[in-house]
Amino acid sequence: MTPDFDDFIETIVNHTDCTEEEKKDLFEELSIHLKLSYEDFIHQGLSEKEAEERAKRDFGSEQEIGEQIQQALFPYRKESLLFLGAVSLIFSVCVYLIQLFTEGSAYILWLIFSFLVSLIILFLPLDIFSKLRTKAGLNTLLLSELVLSLFGWGIVTEISQSSSIILTFWNWLIIILTVIMIYRVTLTTYHTDHKSRKMKKVLHSVNLTFGFIIGIFTLCIAWLLAFAGMNNASLLLLVLPFIVWICFYVLQLKLYRHSKVISTILAIIALPVSLLFYIIIPLVARIM
Amino acid sequence: MNKPLMYSAFLGFLVVLLVLIALGFRFNKTEEEKQVAFSATNLAEAFTVSENGTIAYLTHGGGKSTLHFYNPNSNLTDPKLTFSSEITDLTFSQDGSKLAYVSVEEMTNKKQRSIVRLYDLNSKKDTQLFSDPRIVREVAFSPDAHTLFFLGGSSFTHYSPITGDRPHDYDLYQYTIQTKKLRQVTHQKAYEMDSLVVSGDGKSVYVEMSEEANTPEEIFAAKQRIFRLPLDNPEQKEKIPVPSAQGDIYDFAIAPSEQTFIYQSTHGEKNGVYNYELFRFNKSTGMNEVLTHLYEYAEHPVISAGGKKIYFMVDKQFARKYREYHLYVMHSDGSKVREITLPAVTYK
């Protein structure tokens, strides 16, 4: 009889923020470890059932081990998420109430989204939304947090009180923290193949940095155009470079397994090609 | 933390969110409510003064504009006309018996139309003269009050993909009240035209517009100036020779002699914001001087009492989010500047 450690290991693995691929690797590694321990106990003369139970007991509780692995793989992620969720939640409430009572404007939609995203980030390390604790889920949340914080900055600039200075610093602390978290979530991986791990890290780093450059560039141009009084549909064209960048990013990840060279070339040309659209956009806008 | 406690805490946060949303619905203010709440007065920008000193002014509140009349020297009853649309311009006929005004109505297709109305102060009758898809600004009576002149911006589009919609292509129009005939007087399609004053003999009009410029350098150097347009040949415009060193002119009034021009221009700055003062220019002597020293935003001069008094509006919140208008009066030489306390205006 082969011991059944699957449920036991799955519970451990599900306590980590690994990707499906990483979880598979981790699953295999833990499975080997438990099976070796099981065989040891068999050699010591224990029955199969007893050996399975001893192997699990000696390994430790699923939750405890899962949390330890999570802390070892992604140090301070839990604390960072708790901090980010808390400061962001308080920020959303403060900005909303100050705007409402000093300027008379209620940004209800922004509050709902900002409050909920902050709340989910806050409760994520407490195992309430365990389904969202994947790399994709975390990054989606963090990107939403980034967009909402940038929108929050727009709301803060409308506040004419002296409190807007403190709120601006607070807002930028959240933005910087979120960007750091996005880098950390994307770049921290669990892989047994070290060369592949390094290559992918470089790929993600390059793409993320390009993404932020395009984002900052787009925001600056949008702000300048809005300042010049442009408020028509042409502004939506500014999203184009972003879409191009996303396409390049997805393409690189898809091609990575087949051709690392093509993937690298795509990573290098992603930024200039995306920025080229800032030259194309005015021409398209003129035609519109 | 155990799970039931965490779920309770999560639900608690959601209750807080619902309370915040309810507060938002309760305390959110419309733009008009904000203007009332954050401004020390409920006085609107447009006003006019008749020759005998009757002041027609507007207050806003409760989503409506109310037109009031006030004459400190007579017991004029206040008819209080109330409008749900915005009133942008007011003008008295020379004898002060008629008031023409422009209201701007929002159409269902998000476009605007201007409605020009006439109020007879003797019969207290209010009638609509005409409505126009153009942006109608600066209505002015002819001396006999048979004709109304106005500036019309015929397009409300953006000139380049990087600017928002603005009214452009301004021209001078005249409307004959008796025959209800509308005629376009000029065909200049001016980028900007403002402040219309009809001459005492009714044969010409004065407007503020940009100096002629063809090259990019000339466009850059061009200034807003006052021009006289003869009505029988409006293309033969004459520039009022305000010294070239003087900055742009944005608004003006003319004394009955048509030699003295009271105009608005910038004069220094306070905390990085330009001060807008009233200036006086005498065409025959060439003398140009600053008339007000309020270091604020003085605008819209109106000359009354045979040229002896100048009424003007001051925006004490200029360059800030919400405007705060106060009506002032002074002697024509700039002396005895004082604020007028209007009966229907609330001062916080």
From TrEMBL, chain A:
What keywords are annotated for this sequence in UniProt?
Membrane, Transmembrane, Transmembrane helix
What InterPro entries does the database record attribute to this sequence? Answer: MFS_trans_sf, Perm_prefix_1
**Membrane-crossing residue ranges in chain numbering:** 81-101, 107-126, 138-156, 162-185, 206-227, 233-251, 263-285
Q: Name the lineage.
A: Bacteria, Bacillati, Bacillota, Bacilli, Bacillales
List the protein's name: Uncharacterized protein
UniProtKB/TrEMBL annotation, chain B:
Gene3D superfamilies assigned to the protein according to its UniProt record, in alphabetical order: TolB, C-terminal domain, YVTN repeat-like/Quinoprotein amine dehydrogenase
Q: Which residues form a coiled coil?
A: none
- Give the species: Pullulanibacillus pueri
Q: Which Pfam family would be a valid example here?
A: DUF5711
Q: Which domain of life is it from?
A: Bacteria
Check the record and name the InterPro entries matching this protein: 6-blade_b-propeller_TolB-like, DUF5711, WD40/YVTN_repeat-like_dom_sf
Give the protein name, as stated in the record: WD40 repeat protein
